[in-house]
Amino acid sequence: MSATKVHENVKAQAPDLGKEFPRGPRQKLGGYVLAARALDKCRAELAKTQGEYHYACPMDRMFLDFAGIDPKDFKKAVAEGRNDEEMDRWIREHAKNGSKEEVIRWSNELRDKRISDLDIELQVYLEEYIEENVPEGRVVYHWFDVYDLEEGRL
User: Fold this and answer.
1) Of 126, 130, 147, 150, nearest in space to 26 by CA
2) What values do phi and psi take at 142, rounded to 5?
3) Where does the record place Basic and acidic residues bias (predicted)?
4) Which of 35, 70, 62, 49 is nearest to 6 (CA)?
5) Under the phi-then-psi rule, with left for phi > 0, alpha for psi from -120 to 50, and beta for the rest, what region is 48?
6) If residue 87 lies in a helix (H) or strand (E), which one and from where to where?
7) Over 80: is that where the pLDDT of 35 sits?
8) What is the pLDDT of residue 97?
9) How far apart are the C-alpha atoms of 114 and 142, rounded to whole Å?
10) What residues pair up with 32 in beta bridges, in sequence order?
């Protein structure tokens, strides 16, 4: 992002993802699950505090693709120093998908998605990921639970 100037507010807003976790996948922004988490990762990337996290990863792309928002446009809006409320408004103004009902349905489907409902490639990946990152003895059925268990929200 060499051509885009990063507003000084971004560093103050960015979490240090080497020391803390981004918001959970269930937390909504602009009405979308995954959006607040994507925002945290984007801010951290801009502030160079992303740790092992990557903005516009496949998980972020699920939100961005469904909303019809280009990852570069989202990153540019974040780089301008918008706070959460302003980004919520920006997402609602720039999302290209249809109705509020569609967004609610999509968000609920992701919230309820079981690991067995995911593409087989992701299921294979998660088998090892769960073993390495989820506390021993915790049974995981829903996809978002993987991150909430690993990051201490459940």
Assistant:
1) 147
2) -95, 140
3) 1-10
4) 49
5) left
6) helix 84-94
7) yes
8) 79
9) 4
10) 29
For 47-99, how does the pLDDT look when each residue is reduced to its tens digit (9 = 90+)? 999 999 999 999 999 999 999 999 999 999 999 999 999 999 999 999 997 68
Parse the chain into domains and list their residue ranges: 8-98, 113-154
pLDDT at 40: 98
Residue tagged 């996948």 (tokens)? 25
Quote the radius of gyration of the chain (alpha carbons, Å).
16
**pLDDT grade, residue 106 (50/70/90)?**
very high
What's the chain's average pLDDT? 94
Cα 46 from Cα 22, distance rounded (Å): 14
User: What's the pTM?
Assistant: 0.92
- Token couple for 32: 């979308």
Q: Give the closest residue to 14 by CA, choosing from 52, 50, 65.
A: 50
Distance CA 90, CA 79 (A): 13
Nearest to 2 by CA among 74, 90, 79: 79
C-alpha 34/C-alpha 6 separation (Å) is 23
Long-range interactions of 118-125: CB distance < 8 A, separation 24+: 118/143
Q: Which two tokens stand for residue 143?
A: 């996809």
How many residues are given for the chain? 154
